[in-house]
Design a protein that fits this description.
With 103 residues, the chain is α+β, with helices and mostly antiparallel strands. It has one helix at 70-88, and strands at residues 14-15, 18-26, 30-36, 42-48, 54-55, 64-65. β1 and β2 (18-26) form a beta hairpin.
């Protein structure tokens, strides 16, 4: 699975109270989207989607994780959510402000 490009979530999808406008970046373990909240404020959404552990084809919403990679995927997801919690507790002009995170 390593290195395959994962399909982004579709533009216009509503998720967690936000509407995805477009994909703005993708890397080895995540995809970042420009989205809007209910008031029309622009936000970024970072989705945990490690290309070496999970795959998503166009038209799919849920990633596919093989049973052999499931435990490692879950550990990575835990650390990803822990990072979101830690960042949410920081208020500094040089650190991205976390408004929300969801599973």
């Amino acid at each position: 699975m390593a290195g395959q490009p994962n399909a982004a979530l579709p533009d216009g999808l509503n998720i967690g109270g936000y509407r995805i406008v477009k994909k703005i970046a993708a890397g080895g373990f995540s995809i970042v989207y420009l989205a809007e909240d209910a008031q029309g404020m622009n936000v970024a959404i970072k989705e945990y989607l490690p290309a070496s552990l999970a795959s998503r084809k166009p038209g799919q919403l849920q990633p596919v994780v093989t049973n052999g990679q499931l435990e490692l995927y879950r550990v990575g997801l835990k650390y990803f959510l822990d990072e979101g919690r830690a960042l949410a507790s920081i208020s500094h002009p040089n650190v991205v402000r976390v408004l929300n995170f969801f599973h």
